[in-house]
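User: My advisor asked me to double-check a structure prediction for DUF421 domain-containing protein before group meeting. I don't want to rely on an old file, so could you generate it fresh from this sequence?
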Amino acid sequence: MDYMYIFIKLGTGFIGLWLITKLLGKKEISQLTPFDFVSSLMLSELVGASIYDREVHFPELVFALVLWAVLSLGFEKVLQLFPWLNPKLSGRPDVLVRDGRVDPEAMRRNKLDWHQVTMLLREQSIFSLREVAFAVFEPNGNLSVLKKSPAESVVREDLDLPDKKVELPVLLIDKGCLDEDQLKSIGRDRSWLEEELRKQGAKRLEDIYYGEWTESGGLYIQHGS
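Assistant: Sure, here is a fresh prediction for DUF421 domain-containing protein from the sequence you gave:
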């Protein structure tokens, strides 16, 4: 294939992608909805495949870019004119934690496990579920968190107290499953855990949806539905 022809098609594809991006509005990667993400993949594949395909000529590439821009803009306009379609097509926020209590059904609905959720919490400098009042899973995959009110907290400096040791919570129970390695890492065994669960009114390990441990706070559990 003629190198000049590749250059022309590549330049056209680059300019076309840039124009479409400008027309559709600026969005960071973290703000992309599932539709935006799939649309970007398909558009890049369309341009990439056409550059080296001898059967796809320059006018066809331009036509494909224009058609894609029209379809994408049309889709955006439809969502603006009919807002009730937006949750169905782009997804809606889902509350994972409400008033400090986890919603197991919301976790299942969004196909999330605790390793994913705790990672999203750590990205916001939250290392324990005890700190969370509300957590909303956004359509773009982010987690919006409202912490519990710190109003009852006393500033340690005001009371001239020594600094409290900082601890990283250990996830022991995830959806009724015990992490034996984590249990060993804190120097405890299954008998100790079962006794702690009984103290908190839990009869079976399988009934616990989430359980974490800190030396200062002890065992913190939440029951499943």
